[in-house]
Amino acid sequence: MVELEEKTLEILKLNGITELLPVQKLTIPKFRESKDVMVQSPTGTGKTLSFVIPIIEFINKNQQNINKNKVQALIISPTRELALQIESTVKMFGIEALCMFGQNKSNEVDRKYETVNKQNISQKKTKDLNKKITRKVFFLIM
């Protein structure tokens, strides 16, 4: 059984989620253990919350030890639509998020990456961000 923090449960309930789905029950413990996880599951089966919940709970548990001016997680998604969905899910938990797309906006990255807890960036931005962010995050989700 997967135990979630009370704050997480409250937010999930406010958003109409009363129980974890099978993919979440299987993967959340692995993410919490910092295991490499690869999930293949149909649309709508709960994959996003499978990795967002452990990230959110990690950030919440470690707030005193986390530099809030540094990126805590980098999530790379294959599509703009998925990137926006992930950003919305993260914000549901009250965590600051920044969603960026494939356009060349290096200056935007320079200005913003130091001020967010979470970045959700399309794969096209990975090259621009590699030297700036990826070595400094607790979570890298691709």
UniProtKB/TrEMBL annotation:
Domain Helicase ATP-binding: 28-142
GO MF annotations in UniProt: ATP binding; hydrolase activity; RNA binding; RNA helicase activity
Any matching Pfam family: DEAD
Entry EC no(s): 3.6.4.13
Catalytic reaction annotation: ATP + H2O = ADP + phosphate + H(+)
InterPro entries documented for this protein: DEAD/DEAH_box_helicase_dom, Helicase_ATP-bd, P-loop_NTPase
Gene3D superfamilies in UniProt: P-loop containing nucleotide triphosphate hydrolases
Keywords for the protein's UniProt record, in alphabetical order: ATP-binding, Helicase, Hydrolase, Nucleotide-binding, RNA-binding
Role of this protein: RNA helicase.
Entry note about domains: The Q motif is unique to and characteristic of the DEAD box family of RNA helicases and controls ATP binding and hydrolysis.
Family recorded in the similarity comment: Belongs to the DEAD box helicase family.
PANTHER family: RNA HELICASE (PTHR24031)
UniProt-recorded name of the protein: ATP-dependent RNA helicase
Species per Swiss-Prot/TrEMBL record: Edhazardia aedis (strain USNM 41457)
